[in-house]
Specification:
229 residues; mainly alpha; single chain
Length: 229
């Protein structure tokens, strides 16, 4: 699915604002977004179908008209949640980037700046792995989500002519995911988040994107001031 072509736009409360309210969208999407809200607010195991039906303002029968089981609904909710998150935090920003260096910074900066939302989705994914009733099928859904993200990172590293881009894309993704897990479990990394982002960037580029950006802005300001003389 091409996320840049307006697929599943409506969103849950914690992921975005300013989007269509639940009552304004069709029944299936309303069910999925209500489930996403509840599964990320609580957990897969503790949310009953009745609660989803109540949140979506539909009957239980309507839910099972669209989905074979609670797990089937949960997998779709996770896929949609990640799609919404990446649209807001990654895709829209990447489309505005002028060069691959900026794209890499966006991946690192936006992923870690939105760490609270990401940690909720990671917890939801873990819930599905723990409680899944269909073995590999659920795992494969989650794998497909991560592969899509790693593919985006790999393409950016290829644009930068970084060797072993596929392996390094996995390393970068694991690095970001690792910090998200730490936030989820420990609630506090105990380090400066801006410095952490810069150090991750330096590992892959060997430069200082933030400092270079600040210098560029300063130089542009100086040129503007000189033009006024």
């Amino acid at each position: 699915m091409d996320l840049n072509k307006g697929s599943y736009i409506p969103t849950s409360r914690y992921l975005m604002s300013g989007m269509p309210k639940i009552k304004e969208i069709d029944t299936r999407k309303k069910i999925v977004l209500s489930a996403l809200e509840l599964f990320t607010e609580s957990s897969y195991a503790t949310v009953p179908i009745d609660a989803i039906a109540e949140r979506a303002k539909v009957s239980k029968g309507a839910i099972f008209h669209y989905f074979d089981s609670k797990l089937d609904l949960a997998k779709e909710a996770l896929r949609v949640g990640m799609e919404i998150f990446w649209r807001r935090s990654v895709y829209e920003q990447l489309n505005k980037c002028r060069n691959p260096e900026e794209k890499l910074w966006i991946i690192i900066n936006d992923s870690l700046s939105s760490i609270t939302d990401q940690s909720k989705l990671v917890k939801f994914a873990n819930d599905l792995i723990v409680y899944c009733e269909d073995g590999k099928e659920t795992i494969n859904v989650i794998k497909d989500i991560w592969r899509k993200y790693i593919g985006i990172v790999e393409n950016i590293l290829n644009e930068l002519d970084i060797p072993n881009s596929k392996i390094k894309a996995c390393i970068l993704s694991a690095c970001i995911d690792g910090f998200i897990y730490q936030i989820l479990i420990l609630q506090d990394l105990g380090v400066n988040l801006d410095l952490l982002k810069q150090e991750i960037y330096n590992l892959f580029i060997g430069g200082t994107y933030v400092n270079e950006k600040k210098r560029s802005m300063s130089n542009n300001k100086q040129l503007g001031d000189e033009g006024k003389l």
